[in-house]
Design a protein that fits this description.
Helix 2 crosses helix 3 and helix 6 packs antiparallel against helix 7 (122-152). The longest helix has 31 residues, at 122-152. The chain has helices spanning 9-19, 23-30, 34-41, 49-58, 62-72, 90-109, 122-152, 157-170; strands at 5-6, 47-48. The protein is mainly α. It folds into 2 domains: 5-72, Orthogonal Bundle (434 Repressor (Amino-terminal Domain)), CATH 1.10.260; 90-170. A two-stranded antiparallel ribbon has the order 1-2. 65% of the residues lie in helices and 2% in strands. This is XRE family transcriptional regulator.
Amino acid sequence: MIKDSAYAGGAIQTLLQEEEIEGVQLALDLNVSPQLVSHMKNDRRKMQKDIAQQSLQVYDNPIYAIEIIHEFSGGYTSPVLNGKAIDDHRLAVEQFAFMEVEEAVETLKRINFIKPPDETTKDEQERIAKAIDEIIDAEAGLSYLKAILAKEYNISLKDRMKKRHPVWKARGWIQ
């Protein structure tokens, strides 16, 4: 579900800082008033979906994209990993992502999915839920690593994703 509007103050502040621009420039780029940008930045007003979409078209900023997509998805996607336990250096993020992927793989190795879902026991359901948790953690780590690498090496995630689509189509992964 994509929300029609969401509070995006943190995402806007990230964008202004990352892009080294002022709210007035953001307003010009998104064709909105500087007052609206100020209200959204300070969470006095929600950002509308069309403005969020426009911002993702105008700015190729992976950290902002993660934040805004997380807000508009209602928490369905991973947030930016910016807590005290996360070191933003690319090597630290790489190690974190690798450890989370390893944990997910190890958890999956210990689960047997042969049984139909309606035949699983409560204990098996709990192990499967734990596996999903580990996959979510790995996905969050990889998503953040992807964003950090794109940012630090000035590589467009939008361009990389566009280049992957024909590959996925050729492999039969997407239609």
